């Protein structure tokens, strides 16, 4: 029988001693306030064990109330107003103790949050586009590659803003050395995979040249599936060996990205529960100055 340090709260799912099929979804929502109802509908329909969102474009206090403390999930919102931002949500029925949410040292502009669950690490990632600051994108990719080298059981989910191969861009959209397809970006991606990560989307559809996950919002490109593949679920080889599926959902939602969802069988998570966070401070109501008419 496993021995644990006395006085510590270790939590695991009711299926401990068995295998848990983890349903892991990732989605660049391109603004959580615009997509709040769609996220709620996705959760109700799919009931993922892990939900990773990117480009939420909102600080935690501006996330719509029904989602901010999502019922049945441990939630961590990591963003600021109008730009970037990621979140990570773990289903309480599967992860019965509060996880510890943290950020690697290379996190910049609220672009990565991770949950450490014993020997399993899950990260929601949003790599910079690179159009405004290409060097910043390369620094982030370098940080992500080093991060992958340090983790043994890792799942990276999100918008990585790199098309791995030429076929990951529709033929009509291919241009030489456009950002997202340059040799140096693909080299960093390949180095990251070289640390034992498996691209689950490609694992389950090795011959499909239309696995696109992002479409420009004009000329019905989403409906016609003329796009790029830049959203991924990457898993360590040992995890990938027990993956059951990985598929995209182009038809769902109004974001310019489609959700991506994988199912991986893992030993039931066992980890030390994190302490409850301090309650959010409530700002006192501002009273109008004497003689000032309050505006409605």
Structure keywords:
Deoxyribonuclease I, Chain A; 7 helices; 296 residues; alpha+beta; disordered C terminus; 6-stranded mixed sheet
- Number of DSSP-assigned strands: 14
Which structural class best describes the helix and strand composition? alpha+beta
According to CATH, the homologous superfamily is: Endonuclease/exonuclease/phosphatase
Shape: globular
Query: Do you know the CATH topology?
Result: Deoxyribonuclease I, Chain A
Q: What's the helical proportion of residues?
A: 10-25%
- Share of β-strand residues: 25-35%
Strands of the biggest beta sheet: in what spatial order?
4-5-3-2-13-12
Average of per-residue pLDDT values: 90
Radius of gyration: 20 Å
Which CATH top level class fits? Alpha Beta
Instruction: Figure out the total of helices.
Output: 7
Task: Give an account of the 3D structure.
This protein has a single domain, classed as Endonuclease/exonuclease/phosphatase (Deoxyribonuclease I, Chain A, 4-Layer Sandwich), CATH 3.60.10. Helix 3 packs parallel to helix 4. Helix content is 20%, strand content 28%. A hairpin with a 2-residue loop joins strand 4 and strand 5. It contains seven helices and 14 strands. The N and C termini lie far apart (64 Å). The N terminus and C terminus are likely disordered. By secondary structure, the protein is an alpha+beta fold. The strands form three sheets. A six-stranded mixed beta sheet has the order 4-5-3-2-13-12. The longest helix is centred in the middle third of the chain and has 17 residues.
Please summarize what this structure is:
With 296 residues, this protein is of the alpha+beta class.
